[in-house]
Amino acid sequence: MTRPTLDRNLAPGIERRLFLRQSLSLGALTLLTGCDISDGDTVQRVLHAMSRWNDRAQAFLFNRHRLAPTFADSEAVRDFRYNAYFPADKVPKLSAADYRLELSGLIADKRPWTVEQLYTLPQESQVTRHVCVEGWSMIGKWRGAPLGTFLQRVGADLSAKYVGYECADGYYGSIDMATALQPQTIMAFGFFDDTIPAKFGFPFKLRIPTKLGFKNPKWVTALYVTNRLPGGFWEDRGYNWFSGL
Amino acid sequence: MTDVTHPAALPAAAEAPRVLHPAARRIMHWINAGAILVMIGSGWRIYNASPALPINFGFPETYTLGGDDSISFALHNEWGLANALGWHFAAMWVLVLNLLAYLTVGVVSGHFRRDFLPLTLAGFRRDLVDALRFRLVHRLGEYNAVQKLLYWGVLGALALTILSGLSIWKPVQLQELTWLFGGYDNARIVHFCGMAAIVGFLVIHVSLSLLVPSTLFSMIVGRAPRHAREKRP
Hints:
The complex is a heterodimer.
Chain A (H helix, E strand, L loop, with lengths): L13 H18 L2 H28 L40 E4 L9 H4 L5 E8 L5 E10 H7 L8 E6 L4 E5 H4 L5 E6 L2 E2 L9 E3 L12 E7 L19
Parallel strand pairs in A: 1-9
Antiparallel strand pairs in A: 2-3, 3-6, 4-5, 4-9, 6-7, 6-8
Chain B lengths: L8 H6 L8 H27 L19 H8 L4 H28 L2 H6 L4 H12 L12 H25 L5 H6 L3 H28 L1 H9 L4 H5 L3
């Protein structure tokens, strides 16, 4: 889902393991010769350049009128996989009364939105496949308001390039405007027939069936529109930015 | 068939050595070899992140491509999946563009028609029996029926692996392709099986080239080594 790889065998002792890993890597880095490190840098630069090229190739392949396949309600998994870099009992529990969605950037009406206001937006349901960058996938049922409708309502500059998001857990990222306007890109307020639970992103997650799971942020607290590529949490750690399906 | 010398080999051996593999083919062969190894190594690391097979199986990290996982953790806060994906989606362009060039040259130059065809069942049966009895004679520049079938087989496996790979990469934009492979999860299994077939081919291909080193020599310099040209089969 949102966090690739870090949930791998999340278990007691993980912190000790991380500490050991980090000490090991510090040791390894100091042992490496300068030549090895610069070789590593060159490889990283080439891979990064190819990743940017792949961003363009994917944007070219993306058709915003192309709908992701939908499935029967019976195929959706109620016991959906929880995925984050912290255990489920540590998820942000946002108060519906205090929550505000902050808006900034190329948006005309930047007044913050309350949960109550958000939940009055026209909504629809979708049963779609969530695909994780690790390779696993799971079909779920979400209900929410199209992000495009919301962006229009707040007077966002729809000709801008990117929509960025920030989350209550410190997670952040961005998507291209074409994907933001794809009709299945929703602010998901519901999971199955209930309000979306805290572990899946209350008061809402961005459900984007045309993007890999880590570009489906939970606990979104801020949205902004910009022409400068904002990057993202995992994107800044070497994952491909576009990550379209 | 043992004592028949290749018609072109006799005069050529006396004068200029016959070129078995033109430079273009040799260059494409080695680009392909590099790209395939990168695809397999990075693919194994990606597989390990979330194994697709229903059995408990993973690739030893030493044989995967994605960097040292502890260094990766220090730099990227993850175990090397990002790096492996970076390699995989970079090398795929090299692999596909090179393969398209190879197919174009192979068709236009007549290499496929001349060297990989005809392929008959009777010929395959005869050559397979000979090969298993270690009696199959290897003549440089001429492909026996077992080899022909292997080359068609690996080309088919490459096509299957690339197409199933595309269907995993773009299960929305290329959803018809994903559907053809039986859906997203099934396409991952097909992709894995295609990889396994290519690895199987590689094992045979590399073993044979080491058993008959003159084939390796000719794929590097183009012509057969002197001793192989002078020796009669």
